Amino acid sequence: MRVFRSHDMDSAPEEAKPFLQHSQKSMGRIPGLHGVMAESPQLLEAYQKLHQLVLASSFDDDETTVLWQTINVENACHYCVPAHTGIAKMMKVSDDITNALRDETPLPSERLEALRTFTLAVMKKHGNVSQDDLDTFFAAGYTNRQVLEVILGLSQKVISNYVNHMAETPVDEVFRKYAWSKSK
C-alpha cells in the first residue's frame, strides 16, 4: 500500500490550514481527499477553487452530476464515485440519473446522454474531438461555453481522481454506503 498522509488541522502544513478550515466549515468535516491534498496547499487550493467554478458554471445540478460522474466512472475512481453519489443525493439529483451513471447504462434524457457522450469523447480523444462530436453536442442544445465548461470539470476531476488512485484514499465513512467498483 502506498503511504500518503491524510492531514488534519494539527498535522497540515500551515499554508493548507485555511483550506482545511474551509472544508470543515462548509462540510462539517475534512474529507479524506482534502486531507491528502493538504500535503500540497497549492493543489488543495486549486481543487477547491475549481470545485466552486464548476458549481458556478452554466450546467444545472443534473448536468454537473453527469459531468462529474462520467469522468469519475471512466477513470474508475473508487473514492469519487461514492462521494459524488452522496453529493448527487444532496443536490436532489434523481436516482435514475445516478444509477445510470454508476452502471454505465442509458441516461433518462437524450440531452444528458449527449453530455456524457461528449465528455467521454473529450477524455478519450484528449481534447482532439471531431466536428461531428461538436455538432452532436450542439444539436442537443449545448453551446461553446459548455464545451469549455466540460474542460473545466475535467480539470477538477483529473486532480481528484489521480490523487485518489495514487494515494488509495479510503472512502469517507459518510459515503461508504455508496461503495462502487467498475464492472467492465
Please write out the topology.
Blueprint (H helix, E strand, L loop, with lengths): L16 H11 L4 H6 L3 H15 L5 H14 L5 H11 L4 H9 L6 H15 L6 H9 L4 H24 L17
Task: Sum this structure up briefly.
The chain has 184 residues and is an all-alpha fold. The protein is 62% helix and 0% strand.
Description:
The chain is mostly helical and 184 residues long. It folds into 2 domains: 14-54, no CATH class; 59-178, AhpD-like (Up-down Bundle). The chain has 9 helices and no strands.
| Outline type | globular
Give the rounded overall mean pLDDT: 97
Radius of gyration: 16 Å
Q: How many strand units?
A: 0
- The CATH topology of the largest domain corresponds to AhpD-like
Please write the CATH class name of the largest domain: Mainly Alpha
> H/E series, N to C?
HHHHHHHHH
The percent range for helix content is 55-70%
CATH architecture label name of the largest domain: Up-down Bundle
Number of helices in the DSSP assignment? 9
Multimeric organization: single chain
| Sheet with the most strands, sense and barrel status | none
